[in-house]
Specification:
heterodimer; A: alpha/beta; 6-stranded mixed sheet; two-stranded antiparallel ribbon; disordered C terminus; B: alpha/beta; 5-stranded mixed sheet; 16 helices; 19 strands
Chain lengths: 404, 562
């Protein structure tokens, strides 16, 4: 058992007062959760402290909240760890700058030497209803419904099951693992800038259908999500959702998969992201070094065909990029030969062989790194090799057990 | 006054399946849930769902395993219905989009589970319940025009008309405290089990036996309330569940001496014997001093290949890491039997009909009974879906035949008065709700658990009666309307106390050992006197006992060994 001070951002809508901070002293084992701490305060001190919770085991997704500024599940965060985290933070008188001046109530406001309090706030990017309870309906669920969140198969179902690639089911099980807790939405920086962004949870849900071989509307879904200005290209790749997700869904990865699939569908990316990626691969494969002028050209007007018959967009984007190169030219930061596509030198031949072997390796190992399947540690592969050996030496024993 | 032909209370698997089935019949449906539907506890069913769908398997084999698992207390007509309809239901779910595990040919693949004579458990990693429930919720969103969702509405009592038929329910919108009397031609209770009556439990905080208590108070019969399952593998202290799938994948149980003790108790099925058998074996090891000092034995998952663990038991890897600080792929994890499942509940027929016309029940709330004295792993999801579907259909058919009747407004007034009374109690006027809950949970876990005897159960019953009195003066802190969780907890406490009283009375009455009811003072199964259900009906003096026959179709009771 250990004593902790939790500092909770409270809001009682019927009091007529604004939000405030309240500190509670709780006493529990460090291995118990922040939610356990909150429930102890609620049970023993103030039953009006509002927090959604149910399973206590990170499966129901009720208790999304911010602990020391990080969006997470209260039940999944051990209070001992939360304390260590709080102690590392400087001046922990409230994490959100915007609300740091709210009044503080409760015991132990002058703790000082006992360490920083654990700061608990409602989730972000959602209106607060009461204390830690947010309005998920108007934000999270509305966005989920935006992506047509149900399977749209073609025609009548088969007599038995749909026969599909076993890997494809495991692949989308990663997004099926989402428990709709909203932690990713709470942490999403793009949504802070653009509240209309469909967002990490809903887009991960969309991938669950796009990646499902049983769904017949994949193309329509991809066009829909790509053409919406608040869709898949609105993500800024900041990784916050991956950090926040308590279930390893890695919503940003699902968004990137959607983008890749959109590229494969020939959908034009307003950021030219896919073409840019391909151009990058091509330029390095050819030269081993980055010819930035060529990169621009290849991104917008790829290949011979692109140059002979450039698209309207290719022309405008290339012309638009000209000032970017003119400025460093004028300041002599770039030499003229570097500014003309194709003139940039490449690596010597022997070094190019190394580059080629990297490409060869990549092509031979062309598989997606899916954290959900592969686990978190790199050594997994080795371990399995060992296990495989162990198992192959004792199958007789194993069978004897089950056959008895 | 919102009205729906069919009103479903509870939105876990049984409730959602019932709502969808009723909507398919073309009636208007409302589904009410005290939490957002995807928060429902069906989420926690990890391991899978049973069906005899593989070539070479048969529904008869599945039925026999279920009946043997039930210690012959399951009603065999109901078990037949469930096992016969199982394959079709699995395919239906697959067609809706459940991402079931596939074998190498891309067809549905299975895993082994306890008490089963064939590998017939279909699964999605170890998130099967969650995966199915989220897919059903997708369907609820799809059919939102036919099915009105009342998310975060709490039900506090059933309304009967002058003929004693169920015609509505009193509800409270949790978000703003508004009280409403909903009317309906049929009401289906799917509010889950009552695990919170015990502490610790694998059950979520919401599992407070609401539907069981509401039906009981309205006059419906409860059945087999003494049959409470203790799951063999739960984390000590916290009560978190480690799926039976772990043992299905080959994990061993070891005592503190490193012995695979199941050899002594179930030499054939070993770790995959029925849950009651494994839980008793573990508790015996612990009681006789062969457990660890923290009152546990060990579950060794390291014998399962690591890749397989990550693929099929990923949730357990997370549970071990986050809640016990153990990497289960490298070391054994300490576990013990823990409260898990309510086999008993509201007595229904195979179409979910209770004793009260117009009132239905399905899932863990109901007792059809397919699980009898002990439920097999991966049969609970199946139960929710099959009987959810059947009650949805029958409730819709009833709604088509009948007109709305008008419930008396009195039921709403009664609830409002009760709430006003709760709100008016001054701080310190009695005990805190949370204190009473804790005492109740510890009492039940101490005295009405894996091993029971008359003195213990009697003591528990006395405590429950005292707590019922204390609840009458217990106070709450929150006097507001918006998300008043304090008030809801006080009403839930009432539900829990009714559930506890019924369990104690039934456990005291059944003077034999069968399934989950093990009486150390009556250690044998006694078919001659006790091959029957115990039914309970509410009176002002407490539950009144009666008996009903166990339906036997083709499987005569035999000695049960694994």
């Amino acid at each position: 058992m250990a004593e902790y001070t939790i500092k909770v951002r409270r809001f009682q809508p019927e009091s007529g007062e604004g939000p405030y901070w309240e500190q509670f002293e709780v006493d529990l084992d460090p291995s118990l959760s922040v939610l356990d701490g909150l429930l102890q305060a609620k049970d023993k001190e103030d039953g009006s402290l509002a927090v959604r919770c149910s399973c206590r085991a990170a499966i129901c997704g009720s208790c999304g909240m911010k602990v020391n500024g990080q969006s997470t599940l209260g039940c999944k965060t051990q209070i001992g760890e939360a304390q260590e985290q709080a102690d590392k933070m400087v001046g922990a008188t409230g994490v959100s700058a915007a609300v740091a001046d709210s009044p503080i109530r409760g015991e132990g406001s002058d703790l000082g030497s006992a360490g920083n309090p654990i700061v608990i706030e409602p989730m972000g990017n959602m209106p607060v209803i009461k204390d830690l309870i947010t309005d998920m309906e108007s934000t999270h669920w509305t966005k989920i419904r935006r992506v047509t969140p149900w399977l749209l198969p073609h025609g009548e179902p088969p007599e038995r099951e749909y026969v599909v690639d076993p890997e494809s089911m495991i692949d989308i099980t990663q997004s099926m693992a989402c428990i709709q807790c909203g932690a990713c939405v709470s942490s999403c920086l793009s949504m802070e800038a653009d509240p209309d962004f469909i967002g990490p949870a809903a887009l991960a849900k969309a991938y669950r259908f796009v990646g499902d071989p049983r769904d017949a509307e994949t193309q329509e879904r991809l066009h829909d999500l790509a053409e919406d200005p608040h869709g898949i290209y609105d993500c800024t790749h900041c990784f916050s959702c991956i950090d926040a997700c308590p279930k390893g869904v890695a919503p940003m990865d699902q968004i990137m998969r959607l983008r890749r699939k959109a590229g494969e569908e020939g959908i034009e990316d307003p950021n030219a992201g896919h073409a840019h990626e391909m151009a990058f691969v091509k330029v390095i494969e050819k030269k081993g070094l980055l010819d930035e002028a060529l990169l621009v050209q290849e991104s917008y007007a790829p290949g011979v065909k692109g140059k002979l018959k450039p698209s309207k967009r290719g022309l405008t984007e290339t012309i638009k990029s000209l000032p970017t190169i003119l400025r460093p030219l004028r300041k002599r930061k770039v030499k003229l030969r570097q500014a003309i596509p194709g003139l940039h030198h490449g690596l010597p031949k022997d070094e190019m062989n190394d580059v080629k072997s990297i490409y060869k390796h990549a092509e031979e190992h062309n598989e997606e790194f899916n954290l959900y399947i592969k686990g978190e540690e790199g050594e997994l592969a080795e371990d399995d090799v060992e296990k495989g050996i162990e198992r192959s030496t004792e199958p007789a024993g194993q069978e004897a057990d089950s056959g008895q | 006054m919102p009205s729906h032909d069919v009103l479903v209370i509870g939105a876990g698997l049984a409730g959602q399946r019932a709502a969808l089935a009723a909507a398919e019949e073309g009636v208007s449906v409302g589904i009410i849930s005290k939490v957002h539907p995807v928060r429902s506890h069906s989420n926690a069913a990890q391991g899978g769902i049973n069906a005899a769908l593989n070539p070479g398997d048969s529904w008869e084999s599945h039925a026999f395993d279920t009946i043997k698992g039930s210690d012959y207390l399951g009603d065999q007509d109901a078990v037949e219905v469930m096992t016969r309809e199982a394959p079709e239901e699995i395919l239906h779910l697959e067609h809706l989009g459940v991402t079931f595990h596939r074998n190498e040919e891309g067809k549905l693949g299975t895993r082994a589970f306890g008490g089963a004579s064939a590998a017939r458990t279909y699964y999605v990693a170890d998130i099967t319940g969650q995966a199915i429930m989220h897919v059903l919720y997708e369907q609820l969103m799809k059919y939102s025009e036919q099915i009105a969702r009342y998310e975060e509405w709490f039900c506090s009592s059933l309304a009967l008309d002058e003929n004693g038929e169920c015609c509505g329910v009193v509800t409270r919108n949790v978000a703003d405290g508004q009280m409403e009397l909903f009317t309906a031609k049929s009401v289906i209770l799917c509010t889950g089990g009552n695990g919170q009556v015990w502490r610790p439990t694998t059950n979520a905080l919401i599992c407070t036996g609401d539907g069981i208590a509401m039906a009981y108070r309205a006059g419906a019969k409860l059945m087999d309330m003494e049959m409470i399952q203790y799951h063999p593998t739960t984390l000590a202290g916290k009560g978190f569940l480690i799926t039976e799938g772990a043992r299905g994948e080959g994990a061993h149980l070891l005592n503190a001496n490193g012995e695979r003790f199941m050899e002594k108790y179930a030499p054939n099925k070993m770790e995959l014997a029925s849950r009651d058998v494994v839980s008793r074996a573990e508790q015996t090891e612990i009681n006789e001093g062969r457990g660890f000092p923290d009152g546990t034995v060990a579950l060794d998952i390291t014998v399962v290949p690591k890749k397989r663990v990550h693929e099929a038991l990923r949730e357990i890897v997370l549970v071990g890491r986050d809640f016990a600080g153990v990497d289960i792929t490298r070391e054994p994890i300490h576990i013990k039997p823990g409260n898990h499942y309510t086999m008993g509940g509201v007595k229904t027929d195979i179409d979910g009909r209770t004793d009260i016309p117009g009132l239905y029940s399905a899932g863990e709330t109901a007792c059809v009974s397919v699980h009898g004295g002990n439920r097999l792993g991966a049969n609970s999801l199946l139960d929710t879906l099959i009987f959810g579907k059947r009650s949805g259909r029958d409730a819709a058919a009833r709604a088509k035949r009948n007109d709305y009747t008008r419930p008396s407004k009195k039921v709403l007034e009664d609830e409002e008065n009760l709430i006003a009374d709760l709100m008016s109690r001054e701080k310190g006027s009695g005990r805190r709700i949370s204190e009473i809950k804790l005492e109740l949970g510890q009492t039940m876990d101490g005295k009405v658990a894996v091993f029971r005897d008359e003195a213990g159960i009697q003591e528990a019953l006395e405590i429950v009666k005292r707590l019922k009195e204390e609840a009458k003066t217990a106070y709450i802190d929150d006097h507001g309307s918006v998300f008043n969780q304090d008030l809801i907890a006080a009403i839930e406490l009432g539900y829990m106390l009714d559930n506890a009283e019924c369990t104690c009375v039934a456990a005291l009455e059944r003077k034999e050992s069968r399934g989950a009811q093990y009486r150390t003072d009556y250690p044998e199964r006694n078919d001659e006197e006790w091959l029957k259900h115990i039914d309970l009906e509410r009176t002002d003096e407490g539950p009144e006992l009666s008996y009903s026959e166990v339906t036997i179709t083709q499987w005569e009771p035999q000695e049960r060994t694994y």
